[in-house]
């Protein structure tokens, strides 16, 4: 990967606009979550930088959008090849920047980032549109899909490159050009990817990345009149604000938001599979995945046994420095976030809950140099009410609540009793029950007897306050294009 001028002395990121790295005079501190120390400086971009990026994207649009799907596909495959070739560098950078374990970055995130490009490089070759013959009127109707223009893409800090490429890949595959803004807390892997774009044959201006905060760079992007489409992944609160800002321009919006995902465990579940998978679904990536389980409902007959075995399994999960290949949990993203997550555990106790393991119960072991890192043990809470804040609000950390239930009808009602509707898991060996429950749960994704297995061909997204719209093969194709119906009288 070629080095930029700044990188040789200190890690100082630059915006990537019109195919060129552009320094920014204002910089934000970026912290290493495993030590609590500043290790990188990120551009604090504002309206002017966003304006330059939008102009570069607009200028590149006519040529890029008129290329054949085959030509665009070739470029996307080349980006994927280059990400694969730099997997180790990217994984180490992502792990250091975000605090996630190196094994998660190596096995899940960076491979998925290249796969995002490969997947849309392939799917773009197979799109067909609709045709309807209205013979009695002497008319033939057909639809055409055209790229929308400059796409504004905003991503969060929890799965940085994975989520950013899940937006960039379909957007440019369909012929759009993009201005992307990663989270100001995790910008490094996106900046490293920019260094690969030229070699992959991405023409200048097709992908522009502007680094900075939400209120400055993000705000300028969502309220820019020449950006007709916003794909946003982040919190529900930010999405509500973005919806308001984009309303005057009637922008196309795709919003992938937070969750408060239930796991429902019936007494005929295979606990050998269920317990390790539910520990993973609760604590993977420090619980910082929108799809993580945070409310576990267990049928009364197996409640005692489940609780004991789950806590034993959670206590075995290794919290360690992100670069430790044996660590299962790394560091949380920031001091503020760690304090917020710990605050929920304190709140649960104040509300009469019982903390069975983790924060405040067990002690954490990390090397001396990591004493100021943002580490937290997997924490299990019980005896809270369904209406408590821990059971209603998204915590987004390694904390899960476990409560008993009696009947199928009761648990469906309780699982649906939150404002979110992103994902759910159901554990039972009764196929009929699994179908009945899955149909009644208010969630965009339901896993039964498993978790996090995805087919990118199928829709991804949430209902209620978890999102608007879906992304995936067909859904992304529809979102990143405009459709028109053409009628020809013969
Ligand atoms: P966030 O909403 O604080 O920030 C997300 C992005 O929006 C960041 O890039 C941020 O800089 C930007 N932003 C903030 N204010 C903005 C504004 N006024 N205008 C434009 N952009 C703005 O979310 P976060 O804390 O980075 O991420 C965690 C959240 O993301 C959680 O709620 C999590 O559930 C959610 N998430 C959802 C999915 C999903 O697919 N549904 C996936 C991952 C994360």
TrEMBL record:
Its main location: cytoplasm. It is found in: Cytoplasm. Pathway: Amino-acid degradation; L-kynurenine degradation. Its EC number is 1.2.1.32. SUPFAM superfamilies: ALDH-like (SSF53720). Gene3D superfamilies: Aldehyde Dehydrogenase, Chain A, domain 1 (3.40.605.10), Aldehyde Dehydrogenase, Chain A, domain 2 (3.40.309.10). The active site is at residue 256. CDD domains: ALDH_F8_HMSADH. It catalyses: 2-aminomuconate 6-semialdehyde + NAD(+) + H2O = (2Z,4E)-2-aminomuconate + NADH + 2 H(+). GO terms for biological process: retinoic acid metabolic process. InterPro entries: Ald_DH/histidinol_DH, Ald_DH_C, Ald_DH_CS_CYS, Ald_DH_CS_GLU, Ald_DH_N, Aldehyde_DH_dom. One of its GO terms (cellular component) is cytoplasm. Residues 26-486 form the Aldehyde dehydrogenase domain. One of its GO terms (molecular function) is retinal dehydrogenase (NAD+) activity. Keywords: Cytoplasm, NAD, Oxidoreductase. Belongs to the aldehyde dehydrogenase family. Catalyzes the NAD-dependent oxidation of 2-aminomuconic semialdehyde of the kynurenine metabolic pathway in L-tryptophan degradation. This is 2-aminomuconic semialdehyde dehydrogenase. The gene is Aldh8a1.
């Amino acid at each position: 990967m070629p080095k930029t001028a700044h990188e040789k002395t200190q890690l100082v990121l630059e915006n990537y606009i019109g195919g060129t790295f552009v320094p920014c005079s204002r910089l934000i501190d970026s912290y290493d979550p495993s030590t609590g120390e500043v290790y990188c400086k990120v551009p604090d971009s504002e309206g002017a930088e966003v304006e330059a990026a939008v102009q570069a994207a607009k200028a590149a649009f006519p040529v890029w959008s008129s290329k054949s799907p085959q030509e665009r596909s070739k470029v996307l495959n080349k980006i994927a090849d280059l990400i694969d070739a730099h997997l180790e560098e990217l994984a180490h950078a992502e792990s250091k920047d975000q605090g996630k374990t190196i094994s998660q970055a190596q096995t899940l995130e960076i491979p998925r980032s290249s796969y995002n490009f490969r997947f849309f490089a392939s799917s773009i070759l197979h799109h067909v549109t609709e045709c309807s013959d209205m013979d009695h009127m002497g008319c033939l109707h057909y639809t055409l899909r055209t790229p929308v223009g400059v796409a504004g893409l905003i991503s969060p800090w929890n799965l940085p490159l994975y989520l950013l490429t899940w937006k960039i890949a379909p957007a440019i595959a369909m012929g759009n050009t993009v201005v992307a803004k990663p989270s100001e807390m995790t910008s490094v892997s996106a900046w490293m990817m920019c260094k690969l774009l030229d070699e992959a044959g991405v023409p200048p201006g097709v992908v522009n990345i502007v680094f900075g905060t939400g209120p400055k760079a993000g705000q300028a992007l969502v309220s820019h009149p020449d950006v007709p489409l916003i794909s946003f992944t982040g919190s529900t609160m930010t999405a509500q604000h973005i919806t308001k800002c984009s309303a005057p321009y009637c922008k196309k919006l795709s919003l992938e938001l937070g969750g408060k995902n239930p796991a429902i465990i019936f007494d005929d579940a295979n606990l050998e599979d269920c317990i390790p998978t539910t520990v993973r679904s609760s604590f993977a990536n420090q619980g910082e995945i929108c799809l993580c389980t945070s409310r576990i409902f267990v049928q009364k007959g197996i409640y005692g046994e489940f609780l004991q075995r789950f806590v034993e399994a959670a206590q075995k999960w290794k919290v360690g420095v992100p670069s430790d290949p044996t660590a299962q949990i790394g560091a949380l993203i920031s001091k503020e976030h760690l304090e917020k997550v710990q605050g929920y555990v304190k709140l649960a106790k104040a509300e009469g809950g019982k903390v069975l393991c983790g924060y405040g119960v067990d002690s954490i072991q990390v090397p001396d140099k990591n004493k100021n890192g943002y580490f937290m043990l997997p924490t299990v809470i019980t005896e809270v009410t369904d209406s408590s804040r821990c059971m209603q609000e998204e915590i987004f950390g390694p904390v899960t609540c476990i409560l008993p239930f009696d009947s199928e009808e009761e648990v469906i009602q309780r699982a649906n009793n939150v404002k979110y509707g992103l994902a759910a898991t159901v554990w039972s060996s009764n196929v009929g029950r699994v179908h009945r429950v899955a149909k009644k749960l208010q969630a965009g994704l339901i896993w039964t007897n498993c978790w996090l297995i995805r087919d990118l061909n199928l829709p991804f997204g949430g209902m209620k306050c978890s999102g608007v719209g879906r992304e995936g093969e067909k859904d992304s194709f529809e979102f990143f294009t405009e459709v028109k119906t053409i009628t020809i009288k013969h």
